[in-house]
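Field reference: "sequence" (input) and "structure" (output). Example, M48 family metalloprotease:
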Amino acid sequence: MPSRQTPSLRLRRTVAAALIPLLLATPLAPAFAQPAGLPDLGEMSAQDLSPLLEQRLGRAIMVESRRDPAYIDDLDLRAYLNRIAQKLVAYAPGGGIDIEVFPVRDGSVNAFAMPGGFIGVNAGLVTSTRTESELAGVVAHEIGHVVQRHIARGLSAQKDTMVIMLASLLAALAASQAGGQGPEAALVIGQAMAVDSQMTFSRAAEREADRTGFSMLQGAGFDPAGMVSFFGRMAQMSSLNEGTGQVFARSHPLSLERMSDMQNRARELSASHYVDSIDYLYVRAKLRVLQADGVNALLEAIRALGYQAEESKGTARSAAFYGAAVGWVLRKDAAQAQAAYAKATAGGVEHPMLARLGVEIALLENRPDDAVKLAQAAHARWPDQHSLGLAVAQSLQRANRHEEAIVELNKLASAWSDEPRIYQMLADSHAKLRHLIPEKRNLAEYYRRVGALPAAVEVLQQARIASKDFYEQSSIDAALTDVKREVDDERELLQQFRKN
């Protein structure tokens, strides 16, 4: 299946690869211990990418990735993928590590690890899995790349291409700072020239990620055979479609040696009786429509889910109708969405993602007060679901009940301070109420959390000028100092790039 990823997301992924050689000559913190039985990839030298700089680099790349249309900013999907990741990370060699998994609006079967523990999972990969253990197997494999720090360790194999990749990056940075749109070609060409020299290392790294991931799967209680079955299916599809095989099989070379190794390890274990979670069914159904590329593909996905629902029972039937309803919401067809939603909830079926969809349909039908009631009832039923708390605030805003929305959003900010959308919504409600300083403060916080630091400084300076209160001015000054320090840190990082 050919990749349908957007050019801008291809650019971000290429940036991730192109940035790595720029951080040579940086002291490296102690590496994770290598589990027994893994292939020897050699020791990491003092010239490799340090964990601290790798984290900063990853965050910088994610700032841009989150702006990409292919990035799926869906709270329920992100939460689900990260729940799987956290279960796996608890059994990672070397102790806990920071991982963030995000979904990508791309129908091709692929997943990828970036610097700093960020892992992208294509919608097409999730929908191609047949069990939750298969999905967990792919996530575990990508976490294996992160745990073993393959990005940093790959530097020794990329030194010959450093000059090319450095030139590509600097061209991209210059164009980005000037607001240009032309850096993609330079980066893609530079990366393409580096691919050949990376392939030998990649095969060894893939085996290491397999074995690390396999161990995490077993420890977390998933069925390790899920990794074997999914990878085996991808290998078979690739062999049947030489040259146009699945992206996952091409970017993660599935050799006979790797498959045999995984099969042997699976045979040594007792049979697993892991049961898929209900969440998996609803997530897969939602991504089935979100991956659709264009109106015709979306309508086809809705029809396919309808057929699937009619042939299914219980939760599987509900999840398929749920996916169809999500598709009709995307089409702005409230009547069809409501009909599919009624079938999804028939017999009293309950799930937080279903409840969230009910709120969205009420808003689509321009019934904001009903949406408020539905959201409040759902949040009371599932108080730990942050997406439902956000649904309450969104419904209150649509009902022009901004004072109440601010109360709810402040509660969310206390419990969930890392979510940028909360501060954007707070700024919107304060703007509607003509609360100038709180509007600016929250807008600045939103910009800071999405990485738009110059914009955050500018908005805080506007708030400082507008304020007449000494204590408020002092508070703004402190916030400005913090953001400017972050700006200086980013400038220092860029200077390190330039020195190299």
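Residues 1-47, 160-201 have pLDDT under 50 and may be disordered.
The chain is about 70% helix and 5% strand.
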